[in-house]
Amino acid sequence: MSNLPKIAWIGLGIMGSPMSENLIKAGYSVTGFTLEQDKLDRLTAAGGTSASSIAEAVKDADVVITMVPASPQVEAISYGPAGILENAKQGALIVDMSSITPQTSVDLAKNAAEKGIRVIDAPVSGGEAGAIEAVLSIMVGGEQADFDEALPILETLGKTIVLCGPHGSGQTVKAANQLIVAVNIQACAEAVVFLEKSGVNLQAALDVLNGGLAGSTVLTRKKDNFLNRDFKPGFRIDLHHKDMGIVTDAARNVGAALPVGAVVAQLVASLRAQGDGGLDHSALLRAVERLSGQQV
């Protein structure tokens, strides 16, 4: 029998599926629950165990990892008779890797403590490719002892793992991350349209730009998306729209001005309103093309 902690994984989407599979490859016992049967079939094919409910998934787990889209989903899976807090064993550790509001994380940790359950918030950056390659950046909020306990698991999922402060701090840093990513993608998209309209070889231009000060992880990861107009979702516009709402609201609460972020948040919202919410966030290029008079 393995001495590794038993893991329950709730939420097997674009990110959750490859992340849970990396834990299975590392020798962890993973029992998963999600709403889509095909995702459960994928988990079992990878060597995991599927559960028919949250309660079944978490009842024997030492660590419960959650990866769902937003605060309402975290609350839905955590609270109530069928939720994690009512069915996980005392002393269990919840590692919430969803991207949600900092306050939701603070409230979850407080309510879990009343049940003898510990929580850290551990949102990630790196997208689908980072999840598959296990090179995610993981920003954590919570107690040092709980972080230390979770660290071997997190090191199986990512490369840069940092405790940023108390509960909610991971989510605050993730909000800042999403601000930077959105603004960066928007700048790249504007550059692509400018370069193409100027008659420059786009691939050559992006290669040389990425080798200088304008280079970035965003440009490295999204360059082919721009070149091929391939907007298959790695991280959907719908989710980035949610995240831009989190960062603008949190910034308002602390009195931080985000003038460029506010503009990009509106551009993300406009793209979503035009029916592109299911596309990858690199599809911000489509919004710039429309504004530039191109047929999309």
UniProtKB/TrEMBL annotation:
Keywords: NAD, Oxidoreductase. Signal peptide: none annotated. GO terms for molecular function: 2-hydroxy-3-oxopropionate reductase activity; NAD binding; NADP binding. Residues 6-165 form the 6-phosphogluconate dehydrogenase NADP-binding domain. The active site is at K174. Belongs to the HIBADH-related family. This is 2-hydroxy-3-oxopropionate reductase. It comes from Streptomyces gardneri.
